[in-house]
## 1
Amino acid sequence: MKEARVEGERSLLLGIGISAVGIGMYVPFSLVFFHHVTGLSFTLVGLVLTVTGVAGLVFMPLAGTAVDRFGAKKVNLVLYGIRAAGFALYPFAGSLPAFAAVALVTALADRSFGVVQQSLIGEVAQGSARDRLQASTRALQNAGMGAGALLVSGVLGLWGTGGFAYTAWGNALAFALAGLLVGRVRPLRAADAAPPAGGPARQAPAGYRTVLRDRPFLGLTAANFLTALGYAALSVLFPLYLSTWLAAPDSLTGAAFTLNTALCAGVGVLIAGRVRRSGARRTRSAALGAVLFAAAFAGQIVLGTLRPGQSATLVALLAIVVVYTLGELVHSPSGGALSVSAAPEAVRGRYLATYQLSYSLATALAPALFTALLSVDGRLPWAVLTVAALGAALALLRLERHLPAQAVHPEPPAAATPGRPLAPTAA
């Protein structure tokens, strides 16, 4: 049976892909990028980016409130506009106060964008369409960032470091185009949205106190924190582990990243579609992704114990990256759709802002945690990640009966409709 398409879906996905190209043009070179664009020292650029990044985390709860008050689409368009204006202004921000001001405003928009985009998916789609959009979004983000990195490499090859200014304006154009495309998306009207399984939805009171009282959703957020540590491993732990514990060439890191990006962009939608058509509950498919993460991390422990020759290490590492990437492709769409669908519509922005903090906290803690564990034994951080991933999988399975039926099931099963809960119950 062919799935119904979201109105304006192609524009939404095209906008996400174009904005990902813009992100790929500066994220891999962020310190160098802003150093050459502004003329400030690396030390000052790094300090400003750190401070503004932390400020962006503090702003996320306000973004969730704005989504609930004004709607995800409107806030999404505002953030695209801020990001476009910020990158257009960066080449003119040659002084420290000017750079700090532009970086702060842009960081507030960047950090909050994930919350708003997840909320937008919930606003424009329902049922299995949310899972499909989650998978398509991730694939396009990986493909777009890879294309952006290649594009900026070409620009620098033609114009040298002076090309960073052109890249900044290219980013501004990318975000502006993405905003125009997303403007064509049509959110579901209240009358169009199907009621949750079992009857009409319960009207949730507004405010973050609602989220804090929702123990199943907080459990879901905590489980995601454990998995999010695994997402941070590829970019933070993997390169250090290769160079220090395995004494492998740095080129292996590039090979691993390339393989991961290619698989995410090339087969991510296909794998997510197979999972979706299997009828698996979102909690169980997300748990399967976490188990695959654990298998990949356990493989690193074995590899770090055996320490074979360089050829065998290359083959083993690429095999581990394949398993890791499969875990990512299985977990991400189901986990994302699960969080969106578990959030009551009236306070969806606040719920997803809380959920997104699990990713942000894991990303912030990962460097210190991984380096401290690695200094003791190269296998220790992988052991911690293995236990964390298995703990996340177990938590997801235990939370299944406490989460709303419409969150657990992409499409509510007819047989289960009468007896399933309408909203989260206390664990």
Note: Confidence is low (pLDDT under 50) at residues 190-205, 414-427.
## 2
Amino acid sequence: MTARAADRARYDRATAQLDAPVAIVDLDAFDANADDLVRRAGGKPIRVASKSVRCRALLERVLAREGFAGIMSFTLAESLWLARSGFDDVLLAYPSADRAGYAELAADPKLAAAVTVMVDDPAQLDLIDAARAGGGEVVRVCLELDTALKLLGGRVRIGARRSPLHSPAQVAEVARAVARRPGFRLVGIMAYEGHVAGVGDAVAGRPLRSRAVRLMQAAARRELAERRAAVVRAVREVVPDLEFVNGGGTGSVQHTAAEDAVTEIAAGSGLYVPRLFDNYTSFRGRPAALFALPVVRRPGVGVVTVLGGGYPASGAPGADRLPVPYLPEGLRYDPQEGAGEVQTPLLGPVADDLLIGDKVWFRHAKAGELCERFDTLHLVEGDAVTATVPTYRGEGHTFL
């Protein structure tokens, strides 16, 4: 029996009394992935990206482990909810226009001490001040550095379009604007190199593209390491007591951690290891988050139909944004139908071994987005479900 076949047998036994659709997290794999992230971080703390987990119980589990400290959140409402729930170090990774949230933050000493907001433009400070509604608490601020690799005098850009702050001078200018402004305190710098951390460099069947990605990433790492160090020096001239410099992502942990200027690493997807992380040479994780759909039809030889399945991930549309049939091995989508809203046909000789009611296990393309489809996660240890915990959705929250 292959390792994957053994996993399928375990998951089927663990969920034998549960009707599909059902989502699980294999805690043995989850913990092993956490250990691997810590190993790659080389002693620097890992801030957990909550959007890649979206389950309070699992955030608590990983933050209880040595090597993890703090949360990187994705909306202000989520940040405040997590802080009210007892998480005392929450970095909001994206600017917000949530005026009600800012009013709540500025009026509550506990929330103001726990939550740090993201800024890359003085106009965002204006919005926060206009939203205070009399709240006088000092708002903790982090500046985001644009990590994009710019070539040919800026005519070619490689990297996500996030912050407008690219040079040390630009970041330092906004740092001075924050430092001069009453009611704000600059505490950190963040730089997410998504073109390094979030792009696979070993895509099956595409050797030339993979080689090009590896060359691009090597150049991007060198350029960013030099520029990030210069940015940190420039900002520390304005704010000598800067608390943290955050960088990285699951695919670049060891590279980012090697930079002296970086004090902490961000990672989250590496805990669940969704399918988009199969194409990396920098690490090998264990799939920990899966969902199962039930076989409800057998339309013909070599075909079964499962209930549901249309759970595409965000990003540029493409086949790589679809969940992948994982267990049993050997199933594939019908190219004429793909993953359906209500039903999904799956093709392959192994389909003839499946009976009505059997489970087909899938891996989502991205990590936390799976939790937007399920109210609960069943936590599996060995061949048993040892706990059932709510996702954000299960607690009544869909923050985006």
Note: The radius of gyration is 22 Å.
